[in-house]
Amino acid sequence: MNSRPSNPTKLVIRSSTLLFCGVVLIHLFAAQIDAQRSTSRWQTLNGDAPLVIARGGFSGLFPDSSIAAYQLATLTSVADVVLWCDLQLTKDGLGICFPDLNLANASTIVRVYPNREKSYSVNGVTTKGWFPNDFSLTELQKVSLIRGILSRSEKFDENGYSISTVQNVATQMKPALFWLNVQHDDFYEQHNLSMSSFLLSTSRTVSIDFISSPEVNFFRKITGSFGRNGPTFVFQFLGKEDFEPTTNRTYASILSNLTFVKTFASGILVPKSYILPLDDEQYLVPHTSLVQDAHKAGLQVYVSGFANDVDIAYNYSSDPVSEYLSFVDNGDFSVDGVLSDFPITASAAVDCFSHIGRNATKQVDFLVISKHGASGDYPGCTDLAYEKAIKDGADVIDCSVQMSSDGVPFCLRSIDLRNSIAVLQNTFSNRSTSVPEISSVPGIYTFSLTWPEIQSLTPAISNPFRVYSIFRNPREKNSGTLISLSQFLDLAKNYTSLSGVMISVENAAYLREKQGLDVVKAVLDTLTEAGYGNGTTTTKVMIQSTNSSVLVDFKKQSKYETVYKIEETIGNIRDSAIQDIKKFANAVVINKDSVFPNSDSFLTGQTNVVERLQKSQLPVYVELFRNEFVSQAYDFFADATVEINAYIYGAGINGTITEFPFTAARYKRNRCLGREEVPHYMLPVNPGSLLNVMSPLSLPPAQAPNQDFIEADVTEPPLSPVIAKAPTSTPGTPSTIAQAPSGQTRLKLSLLLSVFFLSLLLL
Hints:
Layout: H1 17-29, E1 51-55, H2 67-75, E2 82-89, E3 95-97, H3 109-112, E4 118-122, E5 125-129, H4 137-140, H5 166-173, E6 177-181, H6 185-190, H7 195-202, E7 210-213, H8 216-222, E8 232-236, E9 243-244, E10 249-250, H9 251-255, H10 258-262, E11 267-271, H11 290-296, E12 300-306, H12 320-328, E13 337-340, H13 343-351, E14 367-370, H14 383-391, E15 396-403, E16 409-411, H15 451-455, H16 485-493, E17 500-505, H17 508-514, H18 519-529, E18 540-545, H19 548-557, E19 561-565, E20 570-573, H20 575-582, E21 587-591, E22 598-599, E23 602-603, H21 609-615, E24 620-625, H22 640-650, E25 655-658, H23 661-668, H24 689-692, E26 707-709, H25 711-714, H26 746-762
Parallel strand pairs: 1-2, 1-13, 2-6, 6-7, 7-8, 8-11, 11-12, 12-13, 14-25, 15-17, 17-18, 18-19, 19-21, 20-26, 21-24, 24-25
Antiparallel strand pairs: 2-3, 4-5, 9-10, 15-16, 22-23
Helix pairs in contact: 1-2, 12-13
């Protein structure tokens, strides 16, 4: 599993944490409302919508089986969400909800009782640990719940969440449906503790809707004990080659005889791979017939293993909603329920995104703008990346224009070829050049190669999260062909689904002054040649740049829309800066942190930048949206759709700039946004709410306020005229390090001025 690095810290426990958590979580997603479930016909056993089963509550964020986790699951899921409890028995025969037989795996018991480790046989394997049967409930009240998966955030580990009894969960949460999982009945029986006796006595005061277990003999013991209106029995399958402990048969063997399972159970719970297997490269292979076979045998099928913060098949493009839909809405079958650590995502998948086609009515209007095409699935700026972006529903495709040495404008995400090309052939290694105006390290720049030379290179997919061992679509990592700006514009003209193109221009001053290349003229000439300047196409053209001088130059020479990109993360923007921007730009691009600032990946609040720009009639586009969960704040629950919802429905931005256009385009067809009352799992998050439920000592460090964006940050001198490049004796000879040309990066100019004024003070 991959996640952000975590740094556990021991903190003081507040006695009021639980109560405070409940209050704040209510504000997090507003008051619960009864959401109307989809009435489309489902291919489940009984035709009802699949159940959303919250494993230990919202265990993807809060400690598994804590009251806080159960509260958040109830507040952010479908109305009939099933609360799952892994049932364990204490020494005094009381039932508790805890995710593992070994208490050391998700609690502070080692710290509280360091000398009480025991060794027992568990399913024939000698296992060391701290076991529930060695502790009374009174003793366990001194123990707190913590995260069981170390890659998840440690920020809630010291909130003092108590281990809860089954009765406590039922009383406090009053679940619509309650599921008790009995993982180790045989173990407890060996220690003179009876699961069946506990369940029978508890059922007199607690409504138990489902009971599951991976042990056949457990069901043989309780069959007939609950009467006709008792709970649904669900047999849990473990690994196919694992042995069922009470029959000594493999689970694969039991799976081959579903008629036998039907004699003691009404449903089965299986890992995802039983239905949609993966090959050795983590790509999907054709689904099995298990769901259809089980339904024919009269068995409901529930699926385990859903979590937003784990690796999933590459076919899903790191999008958990797509994974759920492949199990509940694939046209061939639907499972009867999904067991999830992130029930908000399962709820949205089932109720908001199931049974909607690509041509479904759009419920919300904003621009989906690609970032180098669908660069999360293919190498950026290739024909395949652009074609997929269009197919996936992008409204605008983009081209970051670079220039070759022979003056051909083409699309590539970086002026340094090393950032976009698989392996630069040894032939071009001598083209490495130091250009401090562009980078502090040497690079092989596009203006050092001709267009034919660049065309001969192999593109490479971007892997921004390699440090987490998260990689993108390895089968297609070098697929596609780099294309010129002319080819890009011709491609865009062929698709009526596109409303526009966005052309990004950077490093214009350097290219004019040091390389003799006029990128502004090259772009304008190519647009005219492609028919964009004479009215033969209705495709809108937007020119984007971080340099005001570039956009001013385009404004003087054309009527294309211009988009000003603010690179810095800002906390406010002054009126004077806005008025200056309006002189040369029709819209503004800002980064995500300029809308929702964060500290240690937790949102701290919301700025007024979007509101202020929009009040001045400047649409706001935000970048960069990615599907990988490590790119998102914890407040978005490792779900790209939750993040998009916060920016569109919450902050009201006008467009998303994304490497995964499909996810944003699908959000437009979100059925839930078209309802009179939007369900709580589709309400935007309240920035800063998660910080409110942390112990004070767990809070991330306070961040200095983000800068105000002022008029001086906007103003630049005009672009210099093109200066012919002096001929070199040998192609590829490293150029002389030059002075920074005018109109270049504002940050560098600001830094130089700061040093200058400081030197004056020291005189």
